[in-house]
Amino acid sequence: MILLKLFLSFFKIGAFSFGGGYAMLPLIQEEVIEKNNWLTSNEFIDILAISQITPGPIAINSATFLGYRISGVLGSIVATIAVVIPSLIIILLIAHFLNKFKESKYVEWTFKGVRPVVIGLIASAGIFVAKDAIIDIKSLFIACGVFYIINFRRVHPILALIIAGIIGGILY
To answer: Does this entry carry the keyword Cell membrane (predicted)?
Structure first.
């Protein structure tokens, strides 16, 4: 029963998320923490951190890690497949009909309408993670420093992650 619930939850996440993995985070949070009580907020943030540093898309990584945490190896397989299937179906349909509708104003308007929603979902995920991840002045310092060096000094995000890890190791 838990595997079916896991499949349906991650299928819904995959079906109704637009804009990539970070845009999925509010939906994952709703399903995993608030609706099903599978994890606490802190456990979720830890899994997000692991998902971000692991090679591959964050949506698939987080589904895999969350599925494993909820129901072991079989849970990770079920959650990963469930989150990928909707995108696969949608891409196949788009590829089939794209040539016919690529000049349509309605398609253009739809994509323009989805963009602000994606930004809102990503901002929501960032605020959710920041609420539990910024726990004191030291973590606020690290977060602001990383934001500054990535956005204003154009430091590569991987290098910023390494720097933040070293600073975190020293401060904590």
So the answer is: yes
